[in-house]
Description:
The structure holds two protein chains of two kinds.
Chain A: E1 7-16, E2 19-29, E3 34-38, H1 45-52, E4 58-65, E5 68-69, H2 75-79, E6 83-86, H3 98-103, H4 112-120, H5 125-128, H6 139-152, E7 157-161, H7 169-186, E8 189-194, H8 197-203, E9 206-211, E10 214-220, H9 226-234
Parallel strand pairs in A: 3-8, 3-9, 6-7, 7-8
Antiparallel strand pairs in A: 1-2, 1-4, 4-5, 9-10
Chain B: H1 2-18, H2 21-46, H3 54-71, H4 76-101, H5 108-127, H6 130-133, E1 139-140, H7 149-172, H8 174-184, H9 186-191, H10 196-222, E2 224-225, H11 232-245, H12 251-270, H13 272-289, H14 294-305, H15 310-313, E3 319-323, E4 337-348, E5 351-362, E6 366-370, H16 377-385, E7 392-397, E8 400-401, H17 407-412, E9 415-418, H18 430-438, E10 452-456, H19 457-465, H20 481-494, E11 499-503, H21 511-528, E12 531-535, H22 539-545, E13 548-553, E14 556-561, H23 563-567, H24 570-577
Parallel strand pairs in B: 3-10, 6-12, 6-13, 9-11, 11-12
Antiparallel strand pairs in B: 1-2, 4-5, 4-7, 7-8, 13-14
Helix pairs in contact in B: 1-7, 2-7, 2-10, 2-11, 2-12, 3-4, 3-5, 3-10, 4-5, 4-10, 7-8, 8-18, 11-12, 12-13, 18-20, 19-20, 19-21
Amino acid sequence: MSAAVALDLARVRSGYGEALIVREVDLDIRPGEIFVLLGKNGMGKSTLLKTVMGFLPIQAGNVRLFGEDITGHPPHRLARKAISYTPQEQPLFQDLSVEDNLRLGLRDDKYLEEGVKRIGMVFSFIPQRLKQRAGTLSGGEQKMLLVARALMSRPKLMLIDEISEGLQPSVIERLAGVLRSERDSTQVSILLIEQNVKFALSVADRYAVLKLGEIVDRGSVGDQGAEKSITDHLAV
Amino acid sequence: MLILGALALVLVAGGPYVLPTYMVNSLIRAFLYAAAALTVDILWGYTGILTFGQSAFFGIGAYAAGLIFTHIGFSLGYAALALVVGVAGAMIVAAIVGWLSFYQGASPLYASVVSLVLPIVVAQLLYSGGTFTGSSSGLSGFESFDIAIETWFWIAGAFLIILTAGAWIFVRSDAGRVLVAIRENEARCEYLGINVSRVKILLLVVCAAIGAAAGYAFACVQMVVAPEYAGFVFGTELVIWVALGGRGTLIGPVLGTLVIDVSTSYLSGNLPFVWKLIIGLTFVVVIVAIPQGLLPLIKGAVDRLRGRSKIDTAEPAPILQSVAADPFAGLAQAGAHALQIKDVRKHFGSLQVLEGINFTAVRGELLSLVGPNGAGKTTLMRCIADGNERTGGVILVNEHDIQRLPPYDCVAFGVGRKFQTATVFETLTVAESLRIARTRRALPSFRARAATLDVPEAALKVIQATGLDQMLQVEARHLSHGQKQALELAMVLTLEPNVLLLDEPTAGLTKAERMLIGQVLVELAGNHALCILLVEHDLDFVREISSRVIVLHQGRLVLDGTVHEVVESELVRTIYSGAAHAPAGSQA
Lengths: 236, 588
């Protein structure tokens, strides 16, 4: 496998105990690409990300990161490979300050000041409230801090689980801009999980729809009828 | 389980005939210790209250017998008196300690510290009691029941079996699940109308009574009592036995106690210090390697050998039954004003989160609360559902002043609150969670699991729309994020509130699921006269279902009007929605 692919999943299977949640998933994300994975609830989207990050044991298949086989690597080893992972639930250190949470996204403190400045252009509240305890931020502000922390580390691959949830519309719009400009300037690859189809289509290059652990639809966002196809798959 | 019970009965019945006397003696003591360990398991393993204090109740029961038999004398009448005094005394102490430990807002650590102090205080009192309590040498040589050792074996054995069986039935019943719900998420329980403090205090009182009864029997058999039996070392040993055996399993702690105590009585003579070391090391190894204890490990191995999976052993799901909701049941008064918010303020230290919020909502209104992230929307919801949250101002729910009342009292006025982040009971199944939500409406059985589950129509619709009806026996921790949100919403609806506070109820759900839930909400407001306060960021959704919209910005109420007025306003576009939400009509 060449390094022309940032993240490559081949026939990945995974689940919790006896329940198989992800079945035979093939997926490739190219360098500098924003890829969105859509699907209804309980279809295996988050499970797939957790499996890639090594939080869940992989039952079959292979995961490659820039050509290197990382199947079954534990999370702390993956974190050193310039992957940032933004899970859906409780990923902030509630008792630490905003600043300390950001610092944890960095390998070296010397990048902090520059990073905060960069983040502040997008989320203006962050530089003003560096000393505030993260747990006292509102739900939406915590989401923004998460994205900020992920961006701080200047990753090569970002895995982001439903970031638009709970954010006000104008912030979602800004977020789409941030992710695209970050991609343009650093060539980062981004795998997004989303329910918000409008946001997903506004930011992504390609998409796939997961249904009962299998990919049932994929294509480019620009394809004719892509939106309708996705919406049909997400209908009850 | 029946087989295990029958086996235990046979062993207890036949034990005295085949076992040596020393063993019989050791086992009697171990049976009574196991009864005390059982109470630790119920408190810690099931309810999550780590307690070192159960020894104190054991000691109170034992000393009630020792003191009365020594200083007054022994007769059947005095024996009965001692039992009553011991048990009642322990219950009174437990009620006081429980009140101290579990007051509103006390942390679990605080309760554990109180439980540690209790046996120290009781033991100190016994030490300083001079000849009355026998100080450090305790009381001995008092008269007691003239019963053969074999008979005591049967009595103690039967006591333990009945107790274990009773506890087994209780923890598996619908009422017993409430304990697990408390362990998993106290806040969610309170917001489902369960007075958690009261449940904990009652539980502690019952456990104290059991501990005291075991202590009483211990004094009657051994005819000796000493402060050590009320001390914190014994209290800690109980915790260790429970942990080794497997907390939250009942059988594990009982077996753990029997095995360790009996082997101790044999081996500590030969290996006085080494034995303590072995027990200590075993404890450390178990905590590190198998934190769930030995019984679950053994049981898992047996199940694997027999080729059984967890799915095979699951009980059948209860049948969901739709009931007609009566959201205004039990309310003394329910005027037209569902919600009155008067000059409500909230600070976090110097940070002003809400300032002078005023508005009124009537029944049948579906009121959306919008505003930028950090505007104070969630804080306002919190203030309505818990009287202790706000810094100032007055809130009336159904024309009842919520004063400084805790969440479960606000629930009694009709409040139902769904949190922003899905808040569910991780180890309870979907069906069990819904039944917990029903506790306030129908007292659950203490003996069995009901075969049916009543849920109001609205909750049923949410359950069906999100596919949860196919997952009734799935534990909440295995649900996806969106399914957890839906489960919490269904739980809150099962409560049959009349003022419904929903903080982003459809976050994590697809558009189609959202719209279904939107219909359910519109129907609740329209047909059942519910007042619904909704925080949502999806303006299309807000536009679709709301009858009125309030805008919060930097802790102030900046706009209050019809959907049209608010969504089209320049202010909302500037502070909140951005360019994507152009006026209606141009909407995709």
